[in-house]
Amino acid sequence: MTDETHKNGPDAAGSESQSADGQTMDQNGETAREPDPLEAIQAENNELRDRFLRLAAEMDNLRRRTEREVKDAKSYAVTNFARDMLAVSDNLRRAIDAIPEDMRAAAEAGLAVLIEGVEMTERGMLSTLERHGVKKIEPVGQKFDPNFHQAMFEIPNPDVANNTVVQVVQAGYTIGDRVLRPAMVGVAKGGQKSEASAEPGTVPVNEKDA
Q1: 130-155 residue pLDDT tens
Q2: Are strands 149-156 and 183-189 parallel, antiparallel or unpaired?
Q3: What is the DSSP string of the chain?
């Protein structure tokens, strides 16, 4: 009977109060807030959205990288082949240049046809390479550029700006935006400095006197 009285005491009343309110009480007597289903769904939605945006960015970067690699593959797939063909073209040009002008002028019909055939073969080969993106570098008169030119010697010439290309020993070529073979050139020495190589802030003598 004592046990029943004890169960029906204050603790029992408090337990009934908790059940009636439908809320959970912690040890300090404070009401523990239950998670809001709407907030949980919103948090999950934000997380999924963030994952989607990151995945979309990665896919876009992959697409751009793939397009660039495919473009480079198309543009530069023939690089090694084109470089080897340039050596053949050089030999054809050497064969043509080895024939003296007087001999070419007095050449018989058979030799003249042979010379013409070699020249046509050279032109056809260079034309084919050009259709595949190979272009000849025209450096004469340009300022020496180590990215496109390879200096072989210097030529004293006070009438030409210093470091100007004045002679081509071997033609250079580019393929797309890359150098296939630099041009072997001779550059002028002893002339005036070009405007591009002048020090910043300097004024020509003529302009100072004006």
Answers
A1: 998 899 999 999 999 999 999 999 99
A2: parallel
A3: -HHHHHHTSHHHHHHHHHHHHT-EE-TTSPEEPPPPHHHHHHHHHHHHHHHHHHHHHHHHHHHHHHHHHHHHHHHHTTHHHHHHHHHHHHHHHHHHHTS-HHHHHT--HHHHHHHHHHHHHHHHHHHHHHHTTEEE---TTSBP-TTTEEEEEEEE-TTS-TTBEEEEEE--EEETTEEEEPEEEEEEESSPPPGGGSPTT---HHHHH-
